Amino acid sequence: MTTEVRVPTLGESVTEATVATWFKKPGDTVAQDEMLCELETDKVTVEVPAPAAGVLADIVANEGDTVGVDALLANISASGDAAAPAPAAAPAPAAAAPEAAGGSTDVMVPTLGESVTEATVSVWFKKVGDTVAQDEMLCELETDKVSVEVPSPAAGVLAEITAAEGSTVEANAKLGVISGSGAAAAPAAAPAAAAAPAAASKDIANAPSAEKAMTEAGLSAANVAGTGRDGRIMKDDVARAVAAAAAAPAPTPAAPRAPVTANDAAREERVKMTRLRQTIAKRLKDSQNTAAMLTTYNEVDMGEVMALRSQYKDQFEKKHGVRLGFMSFFTKACCHALKEVPEVNAEIDGTDIVYKNYVNMGVAAGTPTGLVVPVIRDADAMSFAEIEKAISAKGKLARDGKLSMADMQGGTFTLSNGGVYGSLMSSPILNPPQSGILGMHKIQDRPMAINGEVVIRPMMYLALSYDHRIVDGKGAVTFLVRVKEALEDPRRLLMDL
Questions:
Q1: Where is the Peripheral subunit-binding (PSBD) domain (predicted)?
Q2: pLDDT in tens, 370-420
C-alpha cells in the first residue's frame, strides 16, 4: 500500500511553492507526522509532514522544483519496499543520531549556553587511535564567554577527529567519532581536518530562492544567519541580512601597523586572540561607544575597616570557615548607597529606565585567560560571611576556568579591585548594560590634615564610572560619598544610616 505526499494548502492567493529542502531520502523510514520536506512560497515557509508511517519510496519533486497546490511530492510505502534512491535526492542531514553505524558513537558539541551559537576548538587532549574511557575529557571548546570541556560519550577508541584545533564549530556540530570496536579509522588528511566544521555542517543546500537573493545582493552564506531547519538559509534571512547591512554604520578602518623592518619582524611573535579576549575587546569598545561615560573620584580612610578586620578576622574565620576580606565591606557599602541612589543600579532599555530593586554584584576578576566578572546574586540580602563565601567560591571557579554562563549573567553593578595589582588610581570602564562600576585601588599611607594636625593614614582612592545618560553628577557624587562614609564608620551599615 502506498500513501501519496502532496502539497498542502499554501494560503489565500498562494498557488505555487518551491521545494526548498528534503529532510529524508528514498529508503529512509519515516514516522507519521515526521517532517519530510520544506516548501518556500513568496510569503511563508511551509513544512510538509508524513501523512503515514512507512518508508519513503520515491521523491517526485526534487529540491528547487516549483510545485502547485495538491501536487505530488513523494510516495510512502507501508510495506517497507522502498524504490531505489533517485540520484537527485538530497543527502541526509549532517546532524544524524549520535549512535553511528558499526558500533561507533559521534562526539557532538554540547549545549553552549543561552545566546551562544558557536565555539572554537581550543585543544584536543586525545589523538586519533587513543583509547578513551566514558566521560574522559576529549577536548576543550572556547566560547566568547566560557570554556567548555567535552567528555567522551562512550568508552572505546577515538577513531576520527572531524573538528581540528582552531576550528569554529556550531552548536550540536560533530567533533569526532568513538569506535566501540577498538578499530580506529585512519586519520583524515590534514587539509580536511583543518576545514571548519561550521561550513561542513551545511551539507544540505540553502533554499534556492535564498541562493538567488544572496547572489543579487552580493552576500556570502557566511554573512547570513539561517533560520531554516539545520541552519538552512531562507529567502527571509537574506532580506534581514540586507536590511541590517544597510542600517549598520560604516565601519571605522583599523589603524595600519607601523612599518616593521625585516630584522624586527623576525623577532616578533604573532598569536591569534582567544575568543574571550576578542569579546572583552569588543564589549569594552562598545561600552565607550554607547554610554556617556564619566568618572568621579574620592578618597577613603581605611583605618576603621582595617582595625575592625584585624580585631575580628580570627573569630570570623573560625566560625564561618572563610577569611574576612575588604570585599565584603565594599559590597555592603555599595548596596547601602545603591538604595539611596537607585539610578546607579539601573539600566537603559530603549527609551525606558529599568530600576532594579535588588543588587546582583559583579566582582571583576583577572584570570590567566582574561578579565571575567562573576556575579553575586542578591548581595543586598547577604551577611558579611555569605558575601565572603560567595566571592571565594566564584573566585576559585574563575581561576580554574570553570565559570558557567549563569555565573556571569544578570549583574546590576560591578566592583573592580585594581589595588591587588598595585594600581593607585584608574578610571574603570562600564560593564554594559550596567550604569555604574566602582574602582578600588591600593591602600597607601599618606599624610592627612585631621583636626589641624598632620597624621599618617591608610588612604585609598575610589573611582566611580557612571553612565551620564541616566546618572546625574549629583547622584554619582552622592553615591561615592555614601560609600566613603560607610567605610570610614562601618557602624553606619548596622544602623542603616
A1: 205-242
A2: 778 899 999 999 999 999 999 999 888 888 877 777 788 889 999 999 888
Alpha-carbon gap, residue 17 to 69, rounded angstroms: 8
Half-sphere exposure of 477 (CA within 13 A, CB side): 3
Rounded to whole angstroms, the Cα distance separating 466 from 471 reads: 7
Residue 91: is its pLDDT beyond 60?
Answer: no
> Residues 106, 468, 489, 496: which is the catalytic one?
468
**In the structure grid, which three cell numbers stand for residue 266, read together?**
623576525
The residues that bridge with 142 in the sheet, in sequence order, are: 120, 147
Comparison of pLDDT for 297 and 19, the residue scoring more = 297
Confirm whether 468 is a catalytic residue.
yes
Domains detected in the chain: 2-77 (2.40.50.100), 99-200 (2.40.50.100), 208-247 (4.10.320.10), 278-495 (3.30.559.10)
Report the C-alpha gap between 320 and 376 in whole angstroms. Answer: 18
Question: What pLDDT score does 189 carry?
Answer: 39
Mean pLDDT of the chain: 81
Of 48, 59, 54, 64, residue with least CA distance to 89: 59
- Mean pLDDT within 106-124: 79
- CA-closest candidate to residue 169, choices 188, 153, 150, 154: 150
> What contacts 15, CB < 8 A, 6 or more positions away?
68, 69
Between residues 94 and 50, which one has the greater pLDDT? 50
Cα 381 to chain centroid distance, Å, stands at 28
Q: Is 472 among the residues known to form the active site?
A: yes
Name the most confidently modeled range: 51-55, 205-209, 219-223, 301-305.
301-305
**Given this model, what pLDDT does residue 166 score?**
81
Report yes or no: 196 and 209 within 8 Å, Cβ to Cβ: no
**What is the value of pTM for the model shown?**
0.52
CA 368 to mean position of chain CA atoms: 19
